[in-house]
Amino acid sequence: MQxxxxxxxxxxxxLHPRNWYSRRGCEMCGKEFVSIVVKxxxxxxxxxxxxxxxFVLIALYAxxxxxxxxxxxxxxxxxxxxxxxxxxxxxxLSFVCVYIDITKTTVIAQEKADIIRRNRPxxxxxx
Length: 127
Description:
The protein has 127 residues and is α+β, with helices and mostly antiparallel strands. It is built from 2 helices and 3 strands. It has one domain.
């Protein structure tokens, strides 16, 4: 199961998803941040599965309707319009799943940031 990484800066009290190009310092103030790792929820895994199914359907669609491949002839059972609607529905459902996943992982990361905030000495917190 993949993890989602967040950065928490105790100095400016900001929590952000960590970018792959993240620098060593906080994006807001440039000071040192704490990395918070949260396990991806089932909705994140479902997003990947829906994307994979949509990709397979797009490949079958192209193979049958564009290249007239015999090995994809079973795809002729559904109409091109139905296939297109199904592919877009899978992609939209994938967007919904990733939104729910990000929302849930952000809440968990915020709880971990709250623990860090409570354990930090009061004189070091600047706002």
